[in-house]
Amino acid sequence: MTPGARVQAAIEILDLVIDAARAGGAPADRLIADWFRARRFAGSKDRRAVRELAYRAIRVCGEIPESGRAAMLRVAAEDPELAALFDGEGHAPAAIAADEPVAEAGLAPRWLVDRFAGSGVSERDAAALLGRASLDIRVNTLRQGDLDLPEGGERSETAHGWRYPPETRIEQTEAYLQGAIEVQDTGSQLTCEVVAARPGETVIDLCAGAGGKTLALAAAMENRGVLIACDADRTRLSRLPPRAERAGATGIETVLLDPNKEMQALQRFAESADAVMVDAPCSGTGTWRRNPEARWRLTEAQLARYTAVQARLLDVAAQLVRPGGRLVFVTCSLLDEEGANQADGFLKRNPGWQAAAPVLPVGTRRGAGLRLSPWHDGTDGFFVARFERL
Question: Which of 48, 64, 78, 213 is the most exposed place for a label (fewest CB within 10 A)?
Fold first, then answer.
């Protein structure tokens, strides 16, 4: 592909991403993969270049762009070499007209920028949400053996974590294929450490999804005890058993939940769990480094629904914890509505609980918990709070 053809390809992909963002369709990475799957002529360098152009445009546009061309013109406005490729030659995009629309640069839609400011998120922290994330791994102590880690990594702040450059092909390494390492953001690993799961305990992962945090809890428990992985999404939860087998994690019981009827499925664990982790559904504002187009999808109404679900799940979790036990609340968000305010609301609704500030090597105190962020801590954005039942 010529340089101009790569720009045109990125524009076509951006149109798909924008349409999907408006309609709640597939994420950008899947759309990009599908686009190239139908165009086998594109080589690896072409795919990489087009992908980088598309994500460059996604990251620079705050409001959702009018079109893929408008998004790419925003990038071209600051890059004369890129602008010169709009010449209409061959498969290149048409020449730039003086009056055509150019997308607006910015961090996010204006209402979200206001919410960040109200949550005490600095401009540096907010801007870092649109940088590139490193590739973080967790050494799986259940399969560690004679571990031969890939080269190029450095230790992270977690007990078993390493950090690699984002382009590292970790999933092609022998260590990954053997289940000796798991891809997991450093912040995600740290939130699992707050749970402090121990061998022989009863631990419930109330919002397990595909089980990334469940596997970390299983390793901490050394496959001894009762570990329950729950979720309301059957498809996501079905991915956990094969992952657990690969990781050598045994004894994990999966429980499919019916929204608003969680205690019907979990009644046998009422007031018996040593620890419950609530990695609640949230806006995902802390994961924009990996999914920058997600900020175009979020609405105020969706955020309100997330916060309502979070409060309800916290109250469900409280019914599962034994006296003296602990509850850990986690969201991938920097918004106080999904963090400090949510923790305060839980304590007001549940007088038999107290906050126990998490002790981690990184993080900034925010209300009853800790906030982790890309700028300060090199992690995805998280809020984590720990509560103890009196």
Answer: 78
- pLDDT surpassing 80 at residue 352: yes
Q: Which amino acid is at 34?
A: D
Q: What is the pLDDT of residues 287-326, one digit of tens each?
A: 999 999 999 999 999 999 999 999 999 999 999 999 999 9
pLDDT in tens, 125-177: 999 999 999 999 999 999 977 678 888 999 999 999 999 999 899 998 999 99
Give the C-alpha distances (Å, rounded to integers) separating 81 from 84, 87, 95. Answer: 5, 12, 13
Beta bridge partners of 366: 369
What was the pLDDT predicted at 146? 67
Measure Cα distances from 195 to 205, 258, 274, 276 in Å: 10, 25, 10, 8
Per-residue DSSP letters for 305-374? HHHHHHHHHHHHHHTTEEEEEEEEEEES---GGGTHHHHHHHHHH-TTEEE-----SS-EEETTEEEE-H
Question: Across residues 370-375, what is the average pLDDT?
Answer: 97
CB 179 within 8 A of CB 139: no
Question: What phi, psi does 384 have (nearest 5°)?
Answer: -140, 135
What gap in Å lies between CA 121 and CA 107, rounded to an integer? 12
The partner residues of 387 in beta bridges, in order of sequence, read: 327, 355
Taking each continuous run of H as one helix and of E as one strand, the counts in the chain are 17, 13
Cβ atoms of 32 and 293 within 8 Å: the answer is: no
Retrieve residue 269's tokens. 């664990």
Cα(267)–Cα(28) distance, integer angstroms:
40
Closest CA to 85 of 94, 77, 74: 94
Cα–Cα distance for residue pair 343/99, rounded to 1 Å: 50
DSSP per-residue string spanning 181-230: EEE--HHHHHHHHHH---TT-EEEETT-TTSHHHHHHHHHTTT-SEEEEE
Contact (Cβ atoms closer than 8 angstroms) between residue 386 and residue 328: yes
Let me know if 282 is a catalytic residue.
no
- pLDDT recorded at residue 39: 86
SS3 26: coil
